[in-house]
Every structure is written in structure tokens, then in C-alpha cells.
Amino acid sequence: MKILKTYIRVVDAVNYRIGRVVMYGIFVLMGILLWSSISKTFFLPSLWTLEMAQFVMVGYYILGGPYSLQMGSNVRMDLLYGEWTPRRKAGVDCLTVLFLIFYLGVLLKGGIDSTAYSFKYGGERSPSAWRPYLWPIKVTMCIGIGLMLLQALSELAKDILRLRGQWNFEGEDATAERADAL
């Protein structure tokens, strides 16, 4: 169980720190979109702004997903779940997280295959007028999906420990405290 708790502490700390940094990506996205608006209004429109905004948004969501899962910000059907005991929630979460882990595994396999294809053929490029290389965003997606998979496994480990009575239901250590402990 000590190994499981160490795994939880390390994964939570890494995803907490990455999530706290990535959350400021919204300002990068706003800057790109602001420049896009200004350049279209007063100058010649920039070719790169739309695609770059899409890339930044993908990175923002993909790299912020594990942090969101860790904070419990993911969407749940609270119609029944909200009234359950913490023990029952942990039991149901143990089952449902397996579907997430399977889904993330399939996504990661596809992402790795797509990234390998991009590298194999000399740098796949977007078919747009700007024609940026696609490998940076594909690598970002693989990293984000991998981190999400690690976080899902961490959540599964927490639920298993909760069911065994070895992880507090209420009054758990704050995520920030766990992150600072690393």
C-alpha cells in the first residue's frame, strides 16, 4: 500500500503543477485571438492565427484534463451520485474509471501511431496556407493523454484505498499540500 500511496502522491504532484502552469494558457489563447481581430481590422489578416489558436486550445484542454480530474471538476450525473455515501461513490468510481482507462488507452495508441506516422514521412504538415508541422501538437496530445491515463490510475488507486479504509473520505490532504510535499 505504501507503493500505491507514493504513486498517488507523485502523479498528483506532477499533474497539479502542470495544471497550474497550463491554466495560464488561456491568456496566450486570448492574445492570439486579440491579435487576429486587430490584424483583420487594421492590417492584412495573419495566416497563422486561427490554426495557432486551435493548437493552443488543444494543448490547454489536453494538458489541463488531468488537473481537472484530480480536482473533481469533471462532469458527473449527480442525480443519484450526490446522495450516495462516500464508500458507495468509491465503489462506483472504481468500476466507471475502468471505462475511462480503456478509452484513454485506445486514444493513446491512436495518438502514438499518428505521431509516428508524422515523423516517419518527414514531418506531416497541415493542408492550410500556413502549413505548420503537426508533430508538435500530436506529441502534446500524447503527453496529455498519457498524463490523464496516469491520473485516472491514481484516482482508481485512491478509490481502492478508500474501500479498504486506508484513504480518508473526508478531510483528505489538500492536493496542493500533496503537490508541495514532492
TrEMBL record:
InterPro entries: DctQ (IPR055348), TRAP_DctQ (IPR007387). GO terms for molecular function: transmembrane transporter activity. It holds the Pfam family DctQ. It comes from the Bacteria. It is a multi-pass membrane protein. It is found in: Cell inner membrane. Keywords: Cell inner membrane, Cell membrane, Membrane, Transmembrane, Transmembrane helix, Transport. GO terms for cellular component: plasma membrane. The keyword Ribonucleoprotein does not apply. Residues 29-160 form the Tripartite ATP-independent periplasmic transporters DctQ component domain. The chain crosses the membrane at residues 21-38, 50-69, 90-112, 132-153. Part of the tripartite ATP-independent periplasmic (TRAP) transport system. Belongs to the TRAP transporter small permease family. The complex comprises the extracytoplasmic solute receptor protein and the two transmembrane proteins. This is TRAP transporter small permease protein. It comes from Litorivita pollutaquae.
